[in-house]
Structures are given as structure tokens and as C-alpha cells.
Amino acid sequence: xxxxxxxxxxxxxxxxxxxxxxxxxxxxxxxxxxxxxxxxxxxxxxxxxxxxxxxxxxxxxxxxxxxxxxxxxxxxxxxxxxxxxxxxxxxxxxxxxxxxxxxxxxxxxxxxxxxxxxxxxxxxxxxxxxxxxxxxxxxxxxxxxxxxxxxxxxxxxxxxxxxxxxxxxxxxxxxxxxxxxxxxxxxxxxxxxxxxxxxxxxxxxxxxxxxxxxxxxxxxxxxxxxxxxxxxxxxxxxxxxxxxxxxxxxxxxxxxxxxxxxxxxxxxxxxxxxxxxxxxxxxxxxxxxxxxxxxxxxxxxxxxxxxxxxxxxxxxxxxxxx
Amino acid sequence: xxxxxxxxxxxxxxxxxxxxxxxxxxxxxxxxxxxxxxxxxxxxxxxxxxxxxxxxxxxxxxxxxxxxxxxxxxxxxxxxxxxxxxxxxxxxxxxxxxxxxxxxxxxxxxxxxxxxxxxxxxxxxxxxxxxxxxxxxxxxxxxxxxxxxxxxxxxxxxxxxxxxxxxxxxxxxxxxxxxxxxxxxxxxxxxxxxxxxxxxxxxxxxxxxxxxxxxxxxxxxxxxxxxxxxxxxxxxxxxxxxxxxxxxxxxxxxxxxx
Lengths: 322, 258
Hints:
Helices cover 35% and strands 27% of the residues of chain A.
């Protein structure tokens, strides 16, 4: 049997009035892999997920999920996927167990089987102790785990996770990453959206960077890093005056700056000759630079290079209470 | 993984699962219980004991006012539905259900069924208290069955309106503003005072709005007042409101999710 891709999309377009949210998105996700759609707020991540999960018809373009056409075989797509949306879609006034039993009933389980399935899931997601408590009393991390458990009542072939860890504190984020990795190990294809580079780097086999409704780059994390120039030169200056002079001198070659640290980042091919000439250029007298180091570009660098904006740092989002 | 392979879900089961969900959710919403159960009883006591002495209706006021309170409580109970529907639409719950191939109709019907159940409960409570404080209708079993049918029609119509409003408003807060309108409608009608005691311009509205023929039908059944064309008008209003609400809800739902 040939392994056809779990998700294929060609030229997806969607507009709301004058706002062109998607301007032609192409994707291909291999079975059993993790695919991350990485982009800032408003880039079109959620719209893409909604179209692929059949919730929203595209204005143009076609897509197949688990081998089924998202428009013509909507029911079959829906039976093959699970969606965990951006906001934990579990009922606050039901208990964790009741939420999961309800999902199991909706997936066709008989009453008794639904109860058994809920119990198994609660165990698996470390929620057994909270099973009989109303979700209202859950922490942000527990809610997300329950939400994810609700998506897994039946094992989907493709699991869509829309910003699964947005708003979570670091500990809950790590816990959720572990859960996602377990799922992948069991062979589930995961399509996730994120605005966190580190999340894409940690979880995804392939990453597509989306900005203003188009995919601006895609590949493995390593490929993306290479694509933007593999090596970075971080230069730290001895005093603010030489720092300012160097930023002025290099101008367009500066990839990013950290003024508080008197540090600038520039791209290099990593060769001794290139690094020497760069250092000579900004510091002809040999006194201005305190120290420098070369390193492999991070996804943050990639993001910056591709979208012209720094990636969203974690701490600008309100963390969920735990 | 055979444990994870479930049979194709049945649509009828979806409807009952969604109804059970909605009922569970409202049964745990203390505000909803207070609004839909306690408020109508309190209003009835208010009308009977505080205002009733000054209102001359030709019968014991409690007997006159009970049909009106019954409709009032249908309004309260149904207005809750607008909020729960609106919450589902804005919280992501609807996306989750749709991605599981549960139809929007099943989700909405669940809320309407819960609304009807809630209203039946509050109606029974209001009637029980009414009997305690001296409500003495002259009705036989057949009259009671018909009266229950009229009430059910009205409750169903109001619940459908509320579900539709829940789709129309973007926030649960906006939806709750709607309860004002629903619960206001019985006042300019024959529910609490005879229409002929109102100023002329209000009379025109009061006589021709849906609540008046429904109340007069209930009075005819329970108290033996002349029915006239009221039962027909009541049925037409309830049926019309229900059908229009369902059709509008269909359109609104489609617009909301595309």
C-alpha cells in the first residue's frame, strides 16, 4: 500500500469581506508525522485549520484529509479527525468524567462503553483524581489535558491542535508536549498551529511558516535554519558608543540587536575570512568588541528573517493560572 | 485498536445526548434555576398580595393572574436558552461538536429540549404554589390536558425564539439583554390587568399581541370564560413564531459558521 499524505491542500483561499485571510495555501503532511503551522497572530493559522477540519468552506482551492475530500466527503473527514480548538471547548459545569462520557456517546459508544472509555482517558491524562469535579475548578493545564482527551475518545487518523499551549505556564506546556509526543509515538498524524518557535522546533517534523495568509517557508527545522543562513555571529561591545557606531556601520547586515546587552547579531557563512573581515569593519582599532561567538541560527532568527518581525515572546501572553 | 473503533454514531442518539447535556448544564447554573424557578413564584406572590388588592378583575385576583404568571415564567425560562446558545457559539463548543459531525440542529434542539423541561418544572411549581394560595380553577381533565398543550406550544415557541436570538447575539451578555423583551411582553396584555383599564393606544397593542389570546385561551379552559376565536389565534401565533424562529435560526447558524 502506498502511503498517501495525511493532509494535502492546494491553493486554499479565504476572505472575509475585503480581508484576504488566506491567499493560496499549499500543504502536504506525511502520515504519522507532526506538522507545525508557525506564524504570528492573524497570519491565517486558525482559518487553515478550520478549513481542513471541514468547519469552514474555502473560497478557492482543494484539500484532502485522511484521503477524503474536505468538501465532498465531509462526513468521512469528520469521522477521521479530531480538533482541539484554541479555547478549551469543554463544559465548565460538567465534571471531567461527564464531558468525556458525552464525547464518547457522540462518537457512537453505548452508555456503559462510554463510561469505561472515559475512565481510561482520565487515567491516561492524569485526571482520575479530578474526574468527579466540575471543570470550572480545573487549572488551565488540566483543562487543556481534558480538552485533548476529549479529542481522543476515538483515535483519529489526523489530530488538529490549534495553539495547544497558548496561555499555559511553562510546566503545563512541558506536560502537554509530553502528551503530544506520546500520541505521535502511537502513529497519530498531528497538525498543530503555534506562534512559539520553540514549540515548533520541539515537536514538529516539518514546519511551515505562515504570514499574511501565505506560506513563506517550509521544511524541517534544520532546513529552515539553513535556508536563512546557517550561522550567526553575536558580537558584544565594550561600551555603548562603539555599539551604536557598529550598528550604524553594519546597518542592513544587522539581523537583530539587544541594546541592553550591547549585542548585535549578524549573519555569516562561518568562514574565518568572513568573520575576520566583519570584525575588522566594525572594530578597526581592536578595542571596541568585548567578545563574540558564532552559533547556528535559531528558529527565532528564521522567523525574523522571513516575516520581518520578531517572534512573539512567551511572556507577552497572559499565563493561565494553575 | 479495536477498543477505539466505535460504530457509526446515530443521529437520534446525538439529539438525546445533546439534550441531556443542556439539561445538566442548566441544572447546575444556580442563576438559571433562580431566574426560571424562583422568580415567577415571587412575582406571583407580589402580584397577588401587593398589587392584587387594588386590581378589580371580577374574580379572585389569584385566579385571574395565574395564567399570566405561567406565561411570564415561560419567558424567564426560555430567555436562559438565548444565553446558553450564545455561549456555545462563542466558546468554541460548536466547533468541537461540528468537527465530530454533530449537526448544529442537534446542538440547538438540545437547548430547546432543556428549555422546555425547565419550563415544565417551573410551571408545575407555580401551579402548586398557586393552589396553596387559593387558585381555584373550574376545569375538568380534558380542559387541563388542553391547557397543558397550549402552555407547551407557547413554551416551545418562546424556546425557539430564544435559541434564534442566541445565534443572533455575539455575546451571552447581549443574549441576556433579550430576556427583558421576552419577560416584558406579558405586561401590556391581559395577563395582569384587564386590557380595558389601559390607555387607548396601549389597548390596541395589548389586544393584538400574541400573549393576550394565549392567556384568554388558558382562562377559557381553566376558568370557563368565553373562548371566542382566541384558541385559533393562540395556535396560529405559537405555530407561526415557532416556524419563523426555526427558519431564521437555520439561516443565522449557516451565516455564523461560514
